[in-house]
Automatic annotation (TrEMBL):
Species of the source: Bicyclus anynana
The UniProt record lists the keyword Metal-binding: yes
Protein name: Nuclease HARBI1
Obligatory cofactor(s): a divalent metal cation
Residue ranges of domain DDE Tnp4 in the record: 174-237
Pfam family, one: DUF8040
Keywords: Hydrolase, Metal-binding, Nuclease, Nucleus
Length: 238
């Protein structure tokens, strides 16, 4: 009888010991080896030099779809919206890095995983940076991309077409561009265009000097040019 009781006590003690050890191990915080991964720590040595190397080799237009002068102008205009302060732990990602990263993404559609190795910036940070920069660019372009609001402004546009291209009574040139996308979940072929790949339509109106007067993006690729135009605010104003 006593041996049976002792065995039970030993079993209870063993189980209690194991549980206490598991709880203690769980409560202990894992000590981080690094605040950031080594590859991202090298951003200051390699990532920030990328733009300078692109300009030096004169390939920045192919990389970001704009030349160095255009990039610097856009960077200065966005500086107040995108600039972050350094902290005691790390230097902030610069405005140039943020803008160049976003332009590369917009130009190529590269994945965040691919871009993180090119720019030495984590994909988690990239997922925050790109939407922020896009929003800042949209806010900025609202001051530059404007539909003429008066008859005099429309006449000026028309006069430019007549003087430069010998096209009288023209107030703008419009067209649409299919931008390839991955079909949203459960959308079937709803976004497939006439070339049989999924897309959204970038619709634009420009003046005689190729300057944008109106831009609309997001209409499903299967919609015809006429249908895209009829779905815009520009059509409702005509």
């Amino acid at each position: 009888m006593e041996s049976h009781v002792q065995r039970r006590r030993l079993a209870v003690a063993a189980v209690t010991f194991i549980l206490l050890k598991c709880l203690r191990k769980k409560s202990q915080k894992r000590k981080r080896r690094f605040w950031v991964k080594q590859i991202y720590k090298n951003r200051l040595e390699s990532g920030t030099q990328l733009y300078a190397e692109l300009v030096s080799d004169k390939v920045e237009h192919n990389f970001a779809r704009m030349n160095a002068n255009q990039f610097e102008i856009l960077c200065s205009l966005l500086n107040n919206k995108l600039r972050k302060n350094d902290t005691n732990y790390r230097d902030a990602i610069t405005v140039k890095e943020r803008l160049l990263l976003t332009l590369r993404f917009l130009a190529t559609g590269d994945s965040y995983v691919s871009l993180q190795y090119l720019f030495r910036i984590s994909k988690q940070s990239i997922s925050i940076i790109i939407p922020e920069v896009c929003e800042a660019i949209i806010d900025l372009l609202n001051d530059y991309v404007k539909v003429p609001s008066t008859k005099e402004e429309w006449r000026t546009v028309s006069q430019q077409f007549q003087n430069k291209w010998n096209f009288p009574h023209v107030v703008g040139a419009m067209d649409g561009k299919h931008v390839a996308i991955q079909s949203p979940f459960n959308s079937g072929n709803d976004f497939d265009n006439y070339k049989l790949f999924p897309s959204i339509v970038l619709f634009a109106l420009v003046d005689a000097n190729y300057r944008f007067l109106y831009v609309n993006v997001g209409t499903k690729g299967r919609i015809s040019d006429g249908g895209v135009f009829k779905s815009t605010n520009l059509y409702k104003k005509t």
